[in-house]
Amino acid sequence: MLLDPLAQVVTLLQPATPFSKRGSGAGRWRVLRTEVGRPFYCAILEGACRLKADGHDEIALEEGDFVLLPSAYNFSMSSHSPTTPEDIVHTSIVLPDGEHRVGNPNDSPDVRFLVGYCVFRSPDAALLSSLLPKLVHVRGVDRLATLMQLVGDEARAQRPARDVVLERLLEVLLIEALRSDGKTDTSPGLLRGLTDERIAIAIRRIHESPDRPWTVAQLANEATLSRSAFYERFGRAVGMAPMEYLLAWRMALAKDLLRREKASIADVAERVGYSSASTFSVAFGRHVGLPPARYARDTSFDRLLQAEAASSTETGSIA
Q: What is the pTM (predicted TM-score) of this model?
């Protein structure tokens, strides 16, 4: 069975509980954000503004642009006109139509946008999101703004099956952004690995058959490269060694099977490529820090996610 590694990673991330709103800016303004890794996304509906994220050059955003930061930390959005420290906005003004205004509340807006956050419910979110680009900038793909609008509308509604619909919409939004022909940084990760035809073959084989007893030599043969060339090329593209990636993917799958599917330890061991439950338990405990049975029972991570979801109802600023 052919599997899409990018779709698998996004699905396994379990994006949920979006927080989005309509915003606008007029005059000179700047909003600074310091986050804890929540995915941030923004669609420019009209006008222009600027975005500066740590480790990246400033981007001039214009109508039709979409930006995704899978693990946003420190970044800022500002008016297209240059700003000073006096222009920093700490709290937006909510206009009568529900739009969040930064800058002058009385002037016509220079820019209108949709901004939002979601949370990744996967207990392996840090690892999985590290496989994605640090920043994605897509220009002129209208369906991304449409998807964001659907996400925002669904988030504010109280319709049946709301959470299921939101989860699917967010998966589509993230996949659509990641696969679009836009500007992405060149940092190592899954997306960069999939753009290398030879390395992409090996990645797909791992995802198609995580239960196979892969070796570097076998994966190199799949990629039709020498062992040394494959090892060096894989590490340069993906940011980790082939066996490290294989282990990380197996453990991510195992966590998902234990928590969401409530599979038995023996079944999980077989499905992720271990010859016995005991061998798997040792590897899992070394990688995760907990034996699989205890991990499957642990609810502390679920409580952490609930607290984070509750905090996403904040209303103070544009993002």
A: 0.76
